Amino acid sequence: MRLPKYHWSCALHFNLNSAARFAMMSKAINSFIAEARVTLTEQRDRVILAMCQTGRESQERVSYRRDELEGLCEAAGAQVIAVVTQKRPAVDPRTFFGEGKVLELVDLVERSEATLVVADRELSPAQVRNLERYLPCRVIDRTQLILDIFARRAITREGRVQVEMAQLSYLLPRLTGRGAEMSRLGGGIGTRGPGETKLELDRRRIRTRLTGLRRELEAIARQRATARDKRLRDVPTVALVGYTNAGKTTLQGRWVADKGGGGVVGGENRLFDTLDPAARQVSTRLGHPYVVIDTVGFVENLPHHLVEAFRSTLEEVRYADVIVIVVDAGHAPGAHLMTTRRVLADLSALDKPIITFFNKIDTVAERPGPDVGALASLYGSAAHGNLEELYQTVERQLELDEVRVTIHVREDDTRWQSLLRGGRIEHAETTASGEWQMTAVTSRKQAHLWQQMQQDGSEHDNRHP
């Protein structure tokens, strides 16, 4: 006798071994995400932006947010065909826009054959549900758009795990009412039904998946910490941080080409081009090595799900010896600098030495004002300009800049050899007392170490005449 489908599934479930059950659960989760995640389709979506100008927000501020949202849509492969803006004291808690503006939006969607509406801020599940009742197309918010871009850009296993964690964390509280197959009933007496049973099952699957992802990410974080500890023992580190599309990846590529004896493929002109931090070793003219790390770009109001998921990656900044903030000089440099500093504050990294580099200076007619909170503000172009001043400023902060020293040593004293690691002797002669007098070029760090060795040796000689 053949069992009904539901009972047949249950019979299979209880006879599978643990590995098969895990594989079956993973397949179900992936299938559920594919069905439930409202994202951009493979075809180029025709997008209408829905923006709310609330309170005393200036028109300049609204224009800035619109440009950024258009850039995000472009990065996701969508085409923005219209922008609908409404000025009101606050967003409508039911439908985001007021009723009249919603009807206007419905008419525009139908006439323009738009396939997607993107709201300029995070929507509640109820707002999405109510808007989709009116509109003949899908509705997503800015957070979902950013999550979609991150999912497209993630390459490494760590990046994919972090993105999936962020997606599931965002999706979990929004499961109620997702899809026609789920019950729209709420909690309370008399409201339970088969739909809610499926909802609870979906939630349990996602929580189980999140637990597994957290464990995997913790293991990856431990591996990253081990690699970082080894790197910190060997060479100093410079972290490139800043707003997305400021030119960090291009700058790292130039740095390696100029100081590393090789080349790195430059970044593309798109938002969130780099998700996975890339560490590249470069050297000073004397051969002293240091590491330049390219980090994930920031954006205003970066979704907290992403911040939490990418915390282990972002915390690379905390362990850097020097932070270089890269700012696009031609695109709202003040606002982008403020956002970057806010994220650095959240990471407790503002106590690090900071150098601000205003990039793409060849695209503006007037230089932005200096960053008063930085040790130095420099201007240039990572793609086309001379970056020697930036290199020298960073190396000076790392104490890897060149200095000329004159030392006096006895003939049998070999400690001076440590001074010449990566340095060179310019002149050497013997004095009347039989000592060697040498003029050498070395790094400031090595010169300080030599000075400390000399002081320690003098103290030792004084204690043992």
Describe it.
With 465 residues, this protein is an alpha/beta fold. The chain has helices at 5-15, 18-36, 59-75, 99-112, 125-134, 142-153, 157-171, 194-234, 248-259, 304-309, 311-314, 333-346, 388-397, 444-463, and strands at residues 46-54, 79-88, 116-119, 138-141, 237-242, 278-283, 289-294, 322-328, 354-359, 376-379, 402-409, 424-430, 436-443.
Output the keywords.
465 residues, 4-stranded parallel sheet, alpha/beta, disordered N terminus
Can you summarize this structure?
The protein is of the alpha/beta class and 465 residues long. Helix content is 44%, strand content 18%.
Write the layout of secondary structure elements.
Layout: H1 5-15, H2 18-36, E1 46-54, H3 59-75, E2 79-88, H4 99-112, E3 116-119, H5 125-134, E4 138-141, H6 142-153, H7 157-171, H8 194-234, E5 237-242, H9 248-259, E6 278-283, E7 289-294, H10 304-309, H11 311-314, E8 322-328, H12 333-346, E9 354-359, E10 376-379, H13 388-397, E11 402-409, E12 424-430, E13 436-443, H14 444-463
Parallel strand pairs: 1-2, 1-3, 3-4, 5-7, 5-8, 8-9, 9-10
Antiparallel strand pairs: 6-7, 11-13, 12-13
Helix pairs in contact: 2-8, 3-6, 6-7, 7-8
Work out the strand percent.
15-25%
Indicate the percent of residues in helices.
Answer: 40-55%
Terminal CA distance reads 102 Å
Largest sheet: 6 strands, mixed
Oligomeric nature of the chains: single chain
| Overall geometry | elongated
Order of helices and strands: HHEHEHEHEHHHEHEEHHEHEEHEEEH
Widest β-sheet, arrangement of strands: 6-7-5-8-9-10
How many helix segments? 14
Could you tell me the radius of gyration in angstroms? Answer: 29 Å
β-strand number: 13
Low-confidence stretches: 1-19, 177-196, 458-465
Mean pLDDT: 77
Structural class: alpha/beta
